[in-house]
């Protein structure tokens, strides 16, 4: 029989059963950068001149999320002084149209940049349950009163008018294609929000530069109980609708140019 060598026990005691049951520490997961959205429409615009007729960093960020990262920021300088007697739908639509036309006209015939492939303009308003169009808060007291009113009244609505424009290669009047839409989202603040919570939010100053006095994409999310409709519409630009408008206006421009070509061929045949 072969002698079995004796192996001494380890000096350190074995780990307890409790320690063995604990999960082993692991390295934090490495966050991988998202791949760009591979859509023919987005790809066709990556190296084109795309103008956002707005200084809003939130709208720029939303467009960057879908791959339009090389956006030219060119805010409209026109005063937004349409009568508040207009319906919210007409107000945002007309304001966005004015912005788009102003920026589109000023961007034409650039010797270095060329004409834009597409111009995107938007205007957003917050409307109380009673139909009052809410501007940006003018002071801390006004800000607190605005948020209390939104809390106490229950529901309010956010409207965004979006307009896209693209130039026509032909001389057909007016020289561009234009498409527009208005998105509506219903928002409900929590009725159980305390005055203390509203004051604490106001003092973050996050909502000081926003119509309605809050930003749903930031700390202001604590104020919102639910929404019905597009979330990014409340942020300031309904992405799905905007992407559809870009596609539609570029298609409209292409179709009008094809019609002009066919008309020109018909005249030559005569």
Q: How would you describe the overall organization of this protein?
A:
- By secondary structure, the chain is an alpha/beta fold.
- Strand 5 (155-167) and strand 6 (176-189) form a beta hairpin.
- Strands 1, 2, 3, 4, 5, 6 and 7 form a 7-stranded mixed sheet that branches.
- It starts with 16 loop residues before the first helix and ends with a helix.
- The chain has 8 helices and 7 strands, in the order H-H-E-H-E-H-E-E-H-E-E-H-E-H-H.
- Helix 5 packs across helix 6.
- The longest helix is centred in the C-terminal third of the chain and has 31 residues, at 239-269.
- 36% of the residues lie in helices and 19% in strands.
Draw up the topology in text.
Blueprint: H1 17-21, H2 40-45, E1 50-52, H3 57-65, E2 71-73, H4 88-107, E3 118-127, E4 133-134, H5 140-153, E5 155-167, E6 176-189, H6 195-202, E7 224-228, H7 231-235, H8 239-269
Parallel strand pairs: 1-2, 1-3
Antiparallel strand pairs: 3-4, 3-5, 5-6, 6-7
Task: Give a quick summary of the entry.
The chain has 8 helices and 7 strands; from the N terminus they run H-H-E-H-E-H-E-E-H-E-E-H-E-H-H.
Radius of gyration: 28 Å
Largest sheet: 7 strands, mixed
Query: Uncertain regions: pLDDT < 50 for 5+ in a row?
Result: none
Order of helices and strands: HHEHEHEEHEEHEHH
Terminal CA distance reads 114 Å
Give the overall silhouette.
flat
Helix content: 25-40%
Mean of residue pLDDT values: 87
Number of discrete helical segments: 8
Total E-strand runs? 7
Structural class: alpha/beta
Per DSSP, what share of the residues sits in E-state strands of 2 or more residues?
15-25%
């Amino acid at each position: 029989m072969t002698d079995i060598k004796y192996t001494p026990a380890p000096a350190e005691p074995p780990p307890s059963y409790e320690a063995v049951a604990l999960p082993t520490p692991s390295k934090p997961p490495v966050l991988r950068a998202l791949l760009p959205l591979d859509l023919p429409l987005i790809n066709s615009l990556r190296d084109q001149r795309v103008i956002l007729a707005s200084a809003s960093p939130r709208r720029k960020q939303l467009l960057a999320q879908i791959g339009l990262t090389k956006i030219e920021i060119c805010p409209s300088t026109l005063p937004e002084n349409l009568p508040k007697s207009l319906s919210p739908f007409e107000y945002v639509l007309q304001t966005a149209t004015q912005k788009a036309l102003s920026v589109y006209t000023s961007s034409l015939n650039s010797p270095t940049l060329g004409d834009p492939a597409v111009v995107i303009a938007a205007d957003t308003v917050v409307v109380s349950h009673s139909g009052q169009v809410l501007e940006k808060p003018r002071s801390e007291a006004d800000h607190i009163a605005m948020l209390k009113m939104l809390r106490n009244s229950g529901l309010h609505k956010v409207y965004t008018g979006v307009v896209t424009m693209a130039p026509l290669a032909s001389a057909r009047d007016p020289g561009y294609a234009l498409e527009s839409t208005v998105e509506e989202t219903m928002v409900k603040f929590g009725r159980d929000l305390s005055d203390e919570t509203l004051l604490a939010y106001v003092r973050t100053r996050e909502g000081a530069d926003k119509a309605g006095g809050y930003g749903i994409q930031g700390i202001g999310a604590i104020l919102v109980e639910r929404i019905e409709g597009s979330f990014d519409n409340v942020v300031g630009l309904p992405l799905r609708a905007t992407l559809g408008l870009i596609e539609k206006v570029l298609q409209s421009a292409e179709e009008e140019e094809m019609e002009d070509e066919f008309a020109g061929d018909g005249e030559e045949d005569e």
